[in-house]
Design goal:
Blueprint: H1 7-11, H2 21-26, H3 31-51, E1 55-56, H4 57-62, H5 72-80, E2 87-89, E3 92-94, H6 103-122, E4 132-137, H7 139-142, E5 152-158, H8 163-178, E6 189-196, H9 200-205, H10 210-218, E7 220-223, H11 225-233, H12 237-241, H13 246-250, H14 263-293, E8 304-306, E9 309-311, H15 315-324
Parallel strand pairs: 5-6
Antiparallel strand pairs: 1-3, 2-3, 4-5, 4-7, 6-9, 8-9
Helix pairs in contact: 8-14
């Protein structure tokens, strides 16, 4: 079946495609370069099909290696003669046989999630605002197309010595004041990736695969954009993976270093770590068991905790990461090495 084409593509034949005329007539760019572009497009569309969203052509162009079509218009023409690779529908590209029947509802939900996240930061989390170096939304909310019932995933970097204080106060504020429900109007905030600022640069410098790179460069930063840019600037491997996005996202003046947190707060933070770490593991075990009983084992996740880091990687993210690694410039990534962090005893 002929893929739907935009008016510009219908009007222009291959003889009038200046950017890629020789390669389009021949069906490829040139050897390894064409393979790299084809592999990245295929991988990205495969991942988007699992999300059920497709990718805006403009965003897809920004994720390509340098040898790929340079802009959305060129990419649209490149894809139009490759129906086995992609299906064009309006301004989005889809895997050939994927479908997104609820896309408009999900895009509207994505806009609502962004507004809700901003309100949560300004209201329920206002008390920990001075201790937050940066806050962003990640996951399906960052892609602006969450499904009904998806959590509102937050990434936080806290000032040194306040991470567990921040988590405790944020959790209590969400439960007692925000009071999440199962509706889209009040999605459940999930602090699924929280770092102390001592650990954050080490976390970003460690090569962690193409999907991590994409999420890092497309995260919707709500607070502390200058600090977040400094994290990206400290991780040049992100630019190797996605060179078109990296320069603009990593440029900027480094933020000033805040004064140290008072020692009583740091002491209380250290005291809170053991009981909260145990509590998070128990909650994770309970939620995983509940999802299995409900028939959703794919929603399982792991709770990975140390004094300066909390992460809850999901089974779904691991699966998508393996699929996305086909798009990596280095192929499948090795398992990330543990980040060396200072322990409570070191302090």
């Amino acid at each position: 079946m002929k893929p739907p084409l935009t008016r510009d593509v219908e009007r222009l034949g291959p003889e009038r495609w200046p950017e890629y005329a020789p390669s389009e007539r021949g069906g490829s760019l040139s050897g390894a370069r064409d393979d790299a572009v084809h592999r990245r497009v295929s991988s990205l569309l495969d991942v988007s099909a699992r999300f059920g969203t497709g990718i805006p052509v403009r965003d897809l162009a920004s994720l390509l290696p340098p040898e790929g079509p340079p802009d959305a218009a060129s990419l649209e023409r490149w894809l139009a003669v490759r129906p086995s690779l992609a299906r064009l529908d309006g301004e989005r590209a889809f895997a050939p046989h994927s479908d997104a029947p609820e896309l408009q509802d999900r895009l509207a939900r994505g806009r609502a999630y962004r507004s809700i996240a901003e309100r949560v930061l300004a209201n329920e989390l206002a008390g920990i605002g001075p201790w937050i170096r940066c806050a962003a939304i990640t996951g399906s909310a960052a892609y602006a197309a969450p499904e009904a019932g998806d959590d509102l995933d937050f990434f936080l970097v806290t000032r040194t010595g306040t991470m567990w204080l921040c988590l405790l106060r944020a959790t209590l504020a969400v439960r007692l004041r925000y009071r999440p429900t199962d509706s889209d109007e009040r999605p459940r905030p999930c602090f699924n990736f929280v770092l102390d600022e001592t650990t954050a640069p080490l976390e970003f410098r460690s090569r962690r695969g193409f999907l991590f790179a994409r999420e890092a460069l497309t995260a919707q930063v709500l607070r502390g954009d200058d600090y977040y840019r400094s994290l990206l600037a400290a991780a040049p491997w992100l630019g190797e993976e996605i060179p078109r996005l990296y320069p603009d996202r990593s440029m900027g003046e480094p933020p000033a270093t805040p004064a140290p947190v008072p020692w009583p707060a740091r002491l209380l933070n250290s005291i809170l770590f053991p009981p909260l770490a145990v509590y998070l593991h128990l909650v994770g075990m309970y939620r995983n068991a509940r999802e299995r009983r409900a028939g959703y084992p794919e929603r399982g996740f792991r709770t990975v905790v140390n004094f300066r880091r909390l992460a809850t990687p999901t089974d779904r993210f691991d699966e998508l990461s393996r699929a996305a690694d086909r798009a990596s410039v280095r192929g499948p990534s090795p398992a990330p090495q543990p980040v060396r962090v200072e322990s409570v005893r070191d302090r």
